[in-house]
């Protein structure tokens, strides 16, 4: 039974009020014989950077991105500095960590670069790190991958592979100052469970563009938690495909976009096999002049993917004037034999009337703003379902708010 | 004894590149334990008075004074006024997505009382206050004013009134949009607070209907941005029978068609 819910402006926007100035929310459900998710891209996926023209900014996949701030990652002028970006992998016992050359067969299995920068990263990296959790190994401690920028430029490739029925939590921490383009592959064997928390806590000048490819095995569960706080430009592209039926993917995202920052999250879930599930929830708060958040949520249900159950949602809270949100959910259905499919996107603003209302009840301005932002994120943080991470996220949100609202 | 004193209050608002004077010299004294009804036709400036007293940034005080027990209210920020004991029950309460009623109530009670209420007694206090207002306990978990019906919004305002125990309560058209049952419940809530004898009440209304439930000590007719006549409860009866026509220049007022723009 096919069911499509389309509520691009549901719920969140204050009743009767217009959406904030400088925000767009578009949504579409297309029923097509041929995927426009693929055809909207300016070139087919490729490992070779030469297969992509240098973007000029009007391409569908680049139209929201400030190319002039990518520090040359998109046009081949950014040269790796051979240092200045340190990667440290800490893994519990039983996990293999290897540094391998590009001819290693495990590289590139989860997905192919879909744009020029991802292909550039693939063409330019020297050594990839491969982290393997053997089959049936259930880790109780997380694998920590610290990416510490020390002012350098780097191209990276990481592979995280879980054997059948293995379970792991991976925390990818990005800090410091760097110009970084990377591809990260997650390969989940049958029945494996992988949670990946990718934190972008960069310094103000950092530029980070990455494609995350997850290949979800039969009956496997993949959970991605993307948390973006810092950086000048952060553009992440988490993508999911399934290797067998019964797979589940949950993609959660949380971003706090401050003045002058560009944070772009583009997602694709490709339901290419039957009876898989996906759930996407991204929430962001923006404040300050020139804060720009972009969220593109593409979900594709291919003709053979009967029994698919998918939902995606993006919500934005605009705290001040001068911030801009572009939110584009996109659901493409090639079969009617699905369990459910829906999407929602809404952008609301914390306006002067809300501030007045809370302050008229004695609540100081600073507390009022924090109350609203904390409330906005609380539901998502709980959904993530990782107590340690929850605490860290809440503490970090508090810290960011303290710095920004004060 | 708490006393709110308004002297020669002038308030302007910016509208279409022009500064418009809405309040043109309001004089009023509200003492603890007293209930004053301010009645007037649409557009007379009643709601402007309410919002200006609470400190809404849209309104500029261009003259006059407002003091609460001698303290200069006009010097205070919006939250300071609330903590000083001023409460405005709004005509159009604002939705605050992501903030639950229970979190909101506790945060405001903490701010107004100067310390966090003890959890056990607080839960009981809220529960009982909600019961008295016929509010479903599930209400506490909803987001502030989000998706509330008109009646729910007004009950929520009165719930806050009961919990925050202000020294001066300004009720801005609390009766508007309520059916008779809701009006009775809301009025009973206001009366419970009044019976404490510790609050001065400024009841702003267009209609006399609510005065059947909440008996004022003083009735003031508001027109053209000031109080034009003051009297006892009998003045309300006169308005009930004769309307506002006598107070409005340029002919009869069409009731209920245009609302003051307060948002």
UniProtKB/TrEMBL annotation, chain B:
Keywords: ATP-binding, Nucleotide-binding. CDD domains: ABC_FeS_Assembly. The keyword Transferase does not apply. PROSITE patterns: ABC_TRANSPORTER_2. The keyword Acetylation does not apply. Residues 4-249 form the ABC transporter domain. It comes from Streptomyces marokkonensis. Pfam families: ABC_tran (PF00005). This is Fe-S cluster assembly ATPase SufC. It comes from the Bacteria. The gene is sufC. Belongs to the ABC transporter superfamily. Ycf16 family.
């Amino acid at each position: 039974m096919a069911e499509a819910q389309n509520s691009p402006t549901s719920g969140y926007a204050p009743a009767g009020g217009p959406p904030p100035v400088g925000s767009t929310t578009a949504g579409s459900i297309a029923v097509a014989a041929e995927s426009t998710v693929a055809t909207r891209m300016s070139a087919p996926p490729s490992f070779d950077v030469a297969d992509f023209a240098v973007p000029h900014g009007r391409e569908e996949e680049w139209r929201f991105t400030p190319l002039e701030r990518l520090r040359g990652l998109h046009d081949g002028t950014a040269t790796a500095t051979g240092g200045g970006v340190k990667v440290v992998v800490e893994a519990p016992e039983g996990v293999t960590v290897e540094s391998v050359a590009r001819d290693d067969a495990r590289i590139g299995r989860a997905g192919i670069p879909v744009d020029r920068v991802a292909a550039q990263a693939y063409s330019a990296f020297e050594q990839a790190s491969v982290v393997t959790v053997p089959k049936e190994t259930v880790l109780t401690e997380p694998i920590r991958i610290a990416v510490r920028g020390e002012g350098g430029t780097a191209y990276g490739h990481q592979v995280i592979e879980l054997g059948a029925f293995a379970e792991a939590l991976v925390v990818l921490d990005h800090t410091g100052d760097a110009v970084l383009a990377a591809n990260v592959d997650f390969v989940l064997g049958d029945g494996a469970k992988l949670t990946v928390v990718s934190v972008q806590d960069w310094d103000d000048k950092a530029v980070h563009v990455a494609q995350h490819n997850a290949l979800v095995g039969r009956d496997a569960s993949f959970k991605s938690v993307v948390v973006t706080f810092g950086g000048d430009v952060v553009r992440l592209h988490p993508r999911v495909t399934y290797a067998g039926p019964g797979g589940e993917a949950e993609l959660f995202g949380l971003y706090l976009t401050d003045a002058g920052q560009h944070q772009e999250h583009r997602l694709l879930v490709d339901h290419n096999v039957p009876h898989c599930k996906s759930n996407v929830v991204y929430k962001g708060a923006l404040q300050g002049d020139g804060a720009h958040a972009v969220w593109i949520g593409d979900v594709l249900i291919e003709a053979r993917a009967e029994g698919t159950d998918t939902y995606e949602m993006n919500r934005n809270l605009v705290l001040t004037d001068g911030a801009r949100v572009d939110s584009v959910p996109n659901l493409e259905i090639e079969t009617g034999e699905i369990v459910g499919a829906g999407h929602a996107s809404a952008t609301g603003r914390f306006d002067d009337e809300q501030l007045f209302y809370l302050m008229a009840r004695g609540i100081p301005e600073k507390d009022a703003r924090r109350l609203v932002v904390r409330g906005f994120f609380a539901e998502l943080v709980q959904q993530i379902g990782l107590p340690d991470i929850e605490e860290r996220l809440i503490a970090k949100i508090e810290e960011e708010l303290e710095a920004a609202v004060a | 004894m708490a006393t709110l004193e308004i002297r020669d209050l002038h308030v302007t608002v910016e509208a279409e590149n022009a500064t418009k004077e809405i309040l043109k010299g309001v004089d009023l004294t509200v003492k603890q334990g007293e209930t004053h009804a301010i009645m007037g036709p649409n557009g007379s400036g009643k709601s402007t008075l309410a919002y200006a007293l609470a400190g809404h940034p849209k309104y500029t005080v261009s003259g006059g004074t407002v003091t609460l027990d001698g303290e200069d209210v006009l010097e205070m920020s919006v939250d300071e006024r609330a903590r000083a004991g001023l409460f405005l029950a709004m005509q159009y309460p604002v939705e605050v997505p992501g903030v639950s009623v229970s979190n909101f109530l506790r945060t405001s009670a903490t701010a107004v009382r100067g310390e966090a209420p003890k959890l056990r007694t607080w839960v009981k206090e809220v529960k009982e206050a909600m019961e008295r207002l016929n509010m479903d306990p599930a209400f506490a978990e909803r987001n502030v004013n989000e998706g509330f019906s008109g009646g729910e919004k007004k009950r929520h305002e009165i719930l806050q009134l009961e919990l925050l125990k202000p020294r001066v309560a300004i009720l801005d058209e609390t009766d508007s949009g309520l059916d008779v049952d809701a009006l009775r419940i809301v009025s009973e809530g206001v009366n419970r607070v009044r019976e404490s004898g510790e609050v001065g009440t400024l009841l702003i209304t267009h209609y006399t209907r609510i005065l059947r439930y909440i008996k004022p000590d003083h009735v003031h007719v508001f027109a053209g941005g000031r109080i034009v006549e003051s009297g006892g409860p009998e003045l309300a009866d006169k308005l009930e029978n004769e309307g506002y026509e006598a107070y409005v220049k340029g002919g009869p007022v069409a009731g209920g068609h245009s609302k003051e723009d307060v948002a």
